[in-house]
Amino acid sequence: MRCDTIWQNARLCTLAAHMPGLGIVEDGVIAADDGRIVFAGAATDAPAFEATRTIDCGGRWITPGLIDCHTHLVHGGNRAGEFEMKLAGARYEDIARAGGGIRATMRATRASSEADLVASALPRLDALIAEGATTIEIKSGYGLSPESEARMLRAARTLGRERPVTIRTTFLGAHAVPPEFDGDADGYTDLVCDRMLPAVAAAGLADTVDGFCEGIAFSPAQIERVFTRARELGLSVKLHAEQLSNLGGAALAARHGALSADHLEHLDADGIAAMRRAGTVAVLLPGAFYFLREKQVPPVEQLRAAGVPIAIATDCNPGTSPLTSLLLTMNMAATLFRLTVEECLAAVTRNAALALGLGHEAGTLEAGRWCDLAIWDVESPAELVYRMGFNPLHARIWRGK
Ligand code: DI6
Ligand code: FE
User: Which residue has its alpha carbon closest to ligand 1 atom 10?
Assistant: First the structure.
């Protein structure tokens, strides 16, 4: 059988759902043709391939390319100043009154051209790529006006043309109420539903729609309106839910068939049951938990027992999770939330793909999926979760190259 490339003499972490644990194959082979995997498995089971290129991996471990399924990678400016204010004892309210918080990033984003947004996001994107990320989700949500939200999403799409990486975009107009609508969250929700969503859908700028369901952001009723409109426009949905309190956001998201509910520190049994019924993925964000010094950990044991798939992501954003390392994210998820090594690796591959609606395209080493690989200089997969601030990536393959 002819193929473009074969990687041989490798130990595979296939993360295949039908295999136990990491789906390990000790003496494995991966064959790719036209950017997709045509075989992944034991060398003894491999068909006789005539490959244009054969690569000896020297016994190294290969995982699926890593997937960051929740980022705010595109944004203007940074919030290091308010970080210092917090260290000096300022409270969230003091910072907001001083013009800090999401609105500070909104102003910096609105003042940025599309080229500025691309240029400032590239170093963050390159940091993720350097650790083997091959698929990255990027949200809008700092423009908070029709033109600037569209500009953020265009910048995100441009990043996918600037680098060998798959970018999935998410419209997050319902992230915060902008100053023009102070005291009128319903009026801003009208703008999101009646103008922004139709425009973004018509321009093909967003793959998914997200919202921030929280006391300081949007109510379940307002999120309900955004999701109903999104579904009418044929867009999938996901939700920032139960991060600081329990407003029933996860159950609301599940009722709309959401791909994922994210954060979930305050998730309850009803929310878990609803997610399980809907197949909604739980995306845990340990970077925000760590940076905000939260105390309430998400209900990992109950999610495990219910069989809800768990993904993790950087939540890379300038206010609560200025994190651009999926490897450190895995260590935080294990150290702070007590996820196992196997759960952490599934959380940045197979389950992260599910959270993006890419469960048949990416996230495992199986025939038919994109040939996105990360080849590692480690003695065991556990080292990928164990270390803090060390990058053992040997090589990264995106769509077979
Ligand atoms: N949850 C968060 O922690 C961030 N957004 C959200 O929905 C905060 C974003 C920021 O502070 O810039
Ligand atoms: Fe977020």
Answer: 319
Q: Which of 75, 79, 102 to mutate to test the pocket of ligand 1 (most atoms within 8 A of CB)?
A: 102
Per-residue pLDDT of 335-360, as tens digits, reads 999 999 999 999 999 999 999 999 99
Determine whether the shortest distance from the Cβ of 288 to ligand 1 is under 6 A.
yes
pTM for the whole thing?
0.98
Residue 318 identity (one-letter amino acid)? P
Q: Ligand 1 within 6 A of 212 CB? A: yes
